[in-house]
Amino acid sequence: MKNTITNNYFEVIRPGINSTFQDLGRKNLNHIGIPFSGAMDKRNFILANRIAGNNENTPVIEFAYQGPKLKFKGQKINFTITGNVSFKLIKKEKEIYGNCYQNYTLEEGDQLDILSTNKSVYGYFAISGNFDVKFQWGSCSTNTKANIGANDGKKIEKDQLIKVSNTHSHDSKKNLQYMDSKIEKIRVIKGTNFNYFSEESKKIFFEKEFEVTKLTDRMGMRLAGPNIKNIVDTNIKSEGIIKGVIQIPADGNPIIMLSDHGTIGGYPKIGVVISSDYDKLVQIPAGSKIKFKEIELLDAEMLFKLYEMETENLISKIK
Amino acid sequence: MIKIISNLGDAALYCDFGSEVNQEINSKVIKYFKSIKEKEIEGITNLTPSYNKLVISFDLKLTNFNIIKKKIENLELKRTEKTKGNKIKIPICCEKQFALDIKNLENKLKITESKIYEKFFSKEYFCYMTGFIAGLPFLGDLDESLKSKRLETPRVKIPKGSIGLAEQFCNIYTSESPGGWNIIGNTPVNIFDKKKEIDPNLINPGDTVIFQQISMSEYEEYNN
Question: Which pTM value belongs to this model?
């Protein structure tokens, strides 16, 4: 069957470390055990689609650390990469190192090699058009642990073919002068079990550094650092959790729930990362240090408004 | 009926119905869950009911904590006093190859294998919630004599269809998964059907499950 494809498609020469199709995720299924999923870094996901000239919620390929190497077959196609990513286009006669937040064109036989994300984790690859992917419960988002979503719920694999359709081209080369705003600390609202922890541990949690360990994926971010001591009970009756929740299991090492988290959890919650800082959080690579800052609900709501304004502002600057 | 409403981060409401786990409290949680779901309140993106809590997530772009809190406080609950669930029969096979922890349980509980099964099959079980992995039902309550702790070291892989016991609850692993419950049998029934766009879950909160023991040959024939 492979050879009968006549449309435009990509051939996967190298899949990368964790390349999946993602969109903005699926709603209202937590009660049956299906998490939200969706692009980890929402702002970079949206910008990739906007620069590529797509609707905001069009499926893209998300990759972590190292992206895929793809060979394009078919008519011309435009694409955009967002994040902090090194990539090159391999054309017949030359190799071009590309810039993020800018449209490029691939022609028949061209290769795109997404080499790495720099000092960050996730990058996004959008084409001006659609990847031919299946939707499940209103979303293509792939949850590889639950085998849900596009690509039979699996990561993109070597040698597979990715069909594309509805391609549209822009003569004008769209781009964005992207400026990343920096934050020093990840801001956190106290969790519903904050008082399960010793006075000293509560202080330590907001004062000391934690390291992001290698046991971090789309489900959760495992941290190592000073031990957080529980003085009440290391288990609670299982209850609903949301992304950003920081649980402390019996071993005293924090785990932050990320987009593919299990919908129910039984460890005490010391805090919840605020919505405006989630994109920044997920981009902190393994081996890096992280510090938390306590914040009140009203301030978090205001920071979210600022975050939304910043995103809108970036979209308006796409030329 | 909700004792305390607090915020879980900046984009979720945490409704606390009490600290105990029983069907009465859980029925209240489910009643709220169903009533809120029916109302389709703007901005709500997820409802996660559990034994005695309800987490309501919302889109901070469209609404906020205070708006949703007011709506929940002034919510008109569904009238149907008894939101009666379905009764579902689940066949399970308890042959050695499926009952991974039966010997463990005999030691832990200090009762014989046959007594464990006798007690287990003599009750109907109420579905408190579904989740953790897609479609997994949390069922209760087990007979006092069957209450046990989880495995000290959880298994990396529990086979799909396994029936597990822990504390006063039992569950059914809807797909292969890590887990620490004591496994006593396996069902050939597909509890979660990901191909179904609507109602992929066979067992939903409020339903009653009746387990029926089947032989190895019945198990093998089940899906033919």
Answer: 0.92
